[in-house]
Amino acid sequence: MKKKNSKPKLDRDCEKWAGLLEKAKVLSIDPSSGSANSAPGFAYIEQGVLLESGTYFIPKGDVSERLFALCEVLRKDFSDIEVLIIESLPPFMQSAGSSFKTRSVMNLHMSVGAIYGALGNAVVIGVPPASGHSEAKKLDFEYVKSDENDALILAHTVFKRADVNLTGVLNKLRSHDEKA
């Protein structure tokens, strides 16, 4: 009988792709379908250096129009991405105190699918929400939650677990703490 690997999938993926992370064009995305309270956060990294981060404005409209707009901007701005880091969402997001409604969860899943479709040739590393939250709690400064910062913490989580140097992300997160 084959022995089951006891490491979490995230750790196995980080080890597997560590060499690629060091030299690749990486996009970390906090998914969103562009609802009234949320926008897709992103962090763009080349060869372990943060070059740009922010959020994408998605025009108002029904969810299919918003997701189409998201796909278009991702294909235009990031068509040569080699690694995609994205939040790996469970099928149901119900927990004590959760504010997620069924429609919100469905829209998030549709957003993740649209992002996969837009950047289909990239290696995908999924980060469970709890893993990103755990890394945020370990920071030596206050983590300020935002769509952009969520994308930054996803990238930080992957690079840290892969034991690959990542320049600029912690300074960017720290600067957001100082502004808060």
Short description:
It contains 6 helices and 5 strands. With 180 residues, the protein is α/β, with parallel strands linked by helices.
Textual characterization of the structure:
- The protein is an alpha/beta fold and 180 residues long.
- Helices cover 46% and strands 16% of the residues.
- The chain has 6 helices and 5 strands; from the N terminus they run αβββαβαβααα.
- It has helices at 9-23, 63-77, 102-118, 129-137, 147-161, 169-179, and strands at 25-30, 41-46, 49-55, 83-87, 123-127.
- A 5-stranded mixed sheet has the order 3-2-1-4-5.
- Strand 4, helix 3 and strand 5 (123-127) form a beta-alpha-beta unit.
- Helix 5 runs antiparallel to helix 6.
- The longest helix is centred in the middle third of the chain and has 17 residues, at 102-118.
- The radius of gyration is 16 Å and the shape is globular.
- The mean pLDDT is 87.
